Amino acid sequence: MKMQLRGFAAALPLAALLGALALLVGGLLAALAIAVPVLVILAVLFGKPVQEDDQ
After folding, report:
1. How many helices (H) and strands (E) does the chain have?
2. What is the pLDDT of residue 47?
3. What are phi and psi for residue 17, nearest 5 degrees?
4. What is the pLDDT of residue 49?
């Protein structure tokens, strides 16, 4: 029983590190998933020439 607890204690920092890394990667992916469509919409809205009505 004591050896099993020691194994869990040794695995805890690794699990915490992997969990933090997964949260970081997930947060970056979520930020990209939000930012890319916003950038596309802004490019479509503001990327057109302003002077269209002089024809």
Report:
1. 1, 0
2. 82
3. -65, -45
4. 65
Inform me whether the pLDDT recorded for 17 exceeds 80. yes
Reported residue count of the chain is: 55
How is residue 21 written in tokens? 């890394």
Q: How many angstroms separate the CA atoms of 28 and 36, rounded?
A: 12
Cα distances from 40 to residues 24, 28, 46, 48, 51, in angstroms, run: 24, 18, 10, 12, 21
Cα–Cα distances (Å) from 39 to 27, 29, 31, 34, 36, in that order, read: 18, 15, 12, 9, 5
- For tokens 């269209």, the residue is 52
Examine the pLDDT at 54 and tell me if it is beyond 60.
Answer: no
